[in-house]
Amino acid sequence: MFKNRKDAGEKLAKALEKYKAENPLILAVPRGGVEVGLQVARILNMDFSIIIAEIDKRIKAFSGGNSLPYMKGRTVILIDDGIAIGSAMRAAIELCKNRKTRKIVVALPVAGRKVAEEIVNKVDELVVLEIPRYFRAVAEAYSKWYDVTDEEVLDLLRENIREKKFKSYNLDVHET
After folding, report:
1. What 3-state DSSP class applies to 142?
2. How far apart are CA 83 and CA 108, in angstroms?
């Protein structure tokens, strides 16, 4: 059981430490996967972006009109807050394959056994922290669960941008 998405991201980061040397790109599946993915990217100091495989109004809202980062030849770690059905993750996997990534890793705090068995055959590696015996919904794995709004995703992304600017500013100040 995870306290919340932040806790899930912290635990997932520990399981993903072995990929750090590959300089991977973390791609989070909105909406719930954004906070989990940001935690992993912060803790392991990895590149971060969001991946929106389905076409809808969120593409413009979340990406600010920017395209996905260049990923050809890179290891890509796809993160969500969990998978019950997996349709968004399957679409994200296909998008990454079409972009000719070197390696696709799917990393999840929780997944159903059936969907995990399907996903493992579509990617190079699957990292799942918990596969409950009786699994009906991702929310079951969290003691504090709520549906993430588009505005919360935008707030998380803005905070991530501010943190990056602050870190680079601090580095410049101390290098004199």
Report:
1. strand
2. 7
Distance CA 43, CA 28 (A): 15
Rounded-to-integer distance, Cα 31 and Cα 4, Å:
14
Rounded to whole angstroms, how far apart are CA atoms 154 and 140?
Answer: 25
- Is the Cβ–Cβ distance between 34 and 61 less than 8 Å? no
Measured between alpha carbons, how far is 47 from 42 in angstroms, rounded to an integer? 9
Beta strands in the chain (DSSP E): 25-28, 47-50, 75-79, 103-110, 125-130
Q: Among all chains, which residue has been given the structure tokens 């549906």?
A: 147
Residue 23 φ/ψ region, left for φ over 0, alpha for ψ in the -120 to 50 degree band, beta for the rest: left
Query: Interhelix angle for 87-98 vs 113-120, to 10°?
Result: 10
The per-residue pLDDT for range 112-155, each reduced to its tens digit, is 999 999 999 999 999 999 999 999 999 999 999 988 888 888 88
Residues with Cβ within 8 Å of residue 60, at least 6 apart in sequence:
none
57: burial class by Cβ within 10 Å (0-12, 13-18, 19+)?
A: exposed
Total-model pTM: 0.81
Q: Which domains does the chain have, with CATH numbers?
A: 5-174 (3.40.50.2020)
Q: For residue range 68-107, what is the model confidence (pLDDT) as tens digits? A: 788 999 999 999 999 999 999 999 999 999 999 999 999 9
